[in-house]
Amino acid sequence: MKKIVAFKVEEELAQFLDKLPNKSDFIRKAVLAQFGMNCPLCTGSGVVTRGVGEHYEAVLRENRRRPCAGCGKPEEVPTGVEGAPEADWPRVEQFLHGGPLYCSRCYATAPPCSVCGWHFPADARAEHDVLYHSDRSP
Question: What is the pLDDT of residues 41-81, one digit of tens each?
Fold first, then answer.
């Protein structure tokens, strides 16, 4: 599901954005870049050479699972929310943005952070605050 959002910008930035052929795509990519990191294979270009792609294709195929951060049960590593039930989107998005990967059951039982809403083990609160909320006090 897509939603429309709005935000205020300076006049100069508005003029720049209005000249782009696809303002929404540009803004979407800029926002997502702030959440993530460049792909180590494509270095952020979105394209890998044939040799690199062929070399890592088998590695990626063989490493499609990782243990749930709660129970340890193997979970398929998601590459996006597409194909996941809508109820699982917050769990998948948490992982995609650098948080722990939980199975649906463990995600529901792990306590959420009062600041960002991420779910993580209660005994990891201090580490979570340092990593993700260093500008705030625990």
Answer: 877 677 888 998 899 999 988 999 999 999 999 999 998 88
Residue 21 identity (one-letter amino acid): P
List the structure tokens of 96: 């995609």
The pLDDT, as a whole number, for residue 87 is 93
Quick check: 93 and 81 in contact, CB under 8 A? yes
Which residues share a beta bridge with 66? 75
Q: Which of 89, 138, 99, 98 is nearest to 121 (CA)?
A: 99
Number of helices (H) and strands (E) in the chain: give both, helices first: 6, 2
Calculate the CA dihedral of residues 24, 26, 32, 37 and round it to 10 degrees: 170
Q: Which helix (H) or strand (E) holds 17?
A: helix 11-18
Rounded to 10 deg, the angle between the 23-35 and 11-18 helix axes is: 120
